[in-house]
């Protein structure tokens, strides 16, 4: 009995402590919030299993921000009971994670992990453009961030444009400003002001003539050239307009061939960056359910595929890719039209995809819960058969 009481007391104490870090919000938040407040809010539905899985992570985030003395408050809101607040934040699915800062709303669409959400919170809660005042601070920043956009120079129309872009896209990447003498000596600049991109141990100088609109350029270049890609990143990459070249790998232990193909793609990415970076992102992916749904068939692991998220299209090599030459021929064919794009999002493809997804769901249900699946499928059929019988039965 004492052990049971101890466990109950511990559970109550834990719930009390964690609830102190996360505030339950309702529609009154619309009138009680102040302009100086910053909030990270999780919108949930009581029946949502994914929302419940996020609960422990959300309380960890609340505890972490509290211990750091962060000005960001952590809240959660039942969107089904507080329609006004959910409508204000344009909540469309659950769980939804949004940040409110000085009347601006920022939607979080990344992985539902503690570190990823905390990184988003720290980035958005501070200045949208952070100042680098010394070479030491610059080196510290570049050691922490894989990708940095840095404005260099005095006040100018370009700086105003840079600030506007940063305010919109700070949810995705990091923006800084610096004086010329703060940068390393090997960073050569032909003129000022300018915007620099630091990525994958190198840098690129923005020019409107070559790179186009600043916002579009930032949106295109905010991902690493080569990385592990999950479904969140893949969807975001599709919004940039670039294609994504992937090597599909096993979800667990990788075989020798998987490691070889991953290294092959990384090598081509590094050595031929000047040829392909304008057209592609590169990476590897495990847990390939999204790709299976796109292709509507099982995928060979390991193998290569290029996807076009703007129209749900995909490209497959004509022959298995084994060498660097074969991989480059495949990528060149995608660029110049030699490799045909398959799939798409036309009406026929959408219908095929709906049928495929329905079959996949039914197969999964019958595999995991056969009795319930049989009942769910047979019940409407039985109702339809009874209705048909009554309609066709001769009347006396």
From TrEMBL:
This is protein disulfide-isomerase. It catalyses: Catalyzes the rearrangement of -S-S- bonds in proteins. It comes from Solea senegalensis (Senegalese sole). It is a single-pass membrane protein. Its main location: endoplasmic reticulum. Keywords: Disulfide bond, Endoplasmic reticulum, Glycoprotein, Isomerase, Membrane, Redox-active center, Signal, Transmembrane, Transmembrane helix. GO terms for cellular component: cell surface; endoplasmic reticulum membrane. It is an enzyme of class 5 (isomerase).
């Amino acid at each position: 009995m004492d052990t049971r009481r101890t466990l109950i007391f511990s559970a109550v104490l834990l719930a009390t402590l964690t609830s102190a870090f996360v505030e339950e919000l309702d529609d009154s938040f619309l009138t009680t919030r102040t302009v100086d407040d910053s909030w990270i809010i999780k919108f949930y539905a009581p029946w949502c299993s994914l929302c419940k899985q996020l609960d422990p992570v959300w309380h960890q985030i609340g505890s972490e921000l509290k211990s750091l003395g962060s000005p960001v408050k952590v809240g959660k809101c039942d969107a089904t009971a507080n329609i006004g607040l959910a409508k204000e934040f344009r909540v469309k699915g659950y769980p939804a994670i949004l940040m409110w800062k000085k009347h601006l709303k920022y939607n979080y669409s990344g992985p539902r992990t503690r570190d990823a959400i905390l990184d988003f919170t720290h980035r958005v809660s501070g200045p949208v453009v952070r100042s680098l005042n010394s070479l030491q601070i610059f080196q510290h920043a570049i050691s922490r961030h894989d990708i940095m956009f840095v404005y260099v120079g005095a006040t100018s129309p370009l700086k105003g444009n840079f600030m506007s872009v940063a305010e919109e896209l700070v949810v995705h990447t990091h923006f800084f400003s610096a004086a010329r003498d703060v940068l390393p000596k090997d960073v050569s600049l032909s003129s000022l002001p300018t915007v620099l991109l630091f990525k994958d141990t190198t840098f690129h100088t923005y020019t409107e003539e070559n790179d186009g609109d600043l916002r579009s350029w930032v949106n295109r270049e905010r991902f690493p050239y080569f990385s592990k890609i999950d479904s969140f990143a893949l969807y975001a990459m599709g919004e940039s307009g670039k294609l994504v070249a992937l090597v599909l790998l096993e979800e667990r232990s990788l075989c020798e061939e998987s490691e070889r193909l991953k290294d092959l793609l990384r090598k081509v990415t590094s050595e031929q960056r000047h040829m392909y970076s304008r057209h592609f992102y590169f990476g590897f992916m495990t847990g390939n359910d999204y790709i299976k749904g796109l292709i509507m068939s099982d995928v060979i692991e390991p193998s290569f595929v290029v996807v076009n998220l703007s129209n749900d299209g995909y490209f497959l090599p004509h022959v298995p890719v084994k060498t660097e030459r074969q991989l480059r021929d495949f990528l060149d064919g995608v660029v110049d039209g030699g490799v045909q794009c398959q799939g798409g999002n036309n009406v026929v493809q959408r219908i095929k995809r709906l049928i495929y997804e329905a079959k996949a769901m039914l197969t999964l249900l019958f595999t995991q819960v056969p009795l319930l699946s049989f009942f769910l499928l047979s019940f409407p059929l039985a109702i339809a058969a009874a209705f048909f019988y009554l309609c066709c039965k001769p009347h006396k």
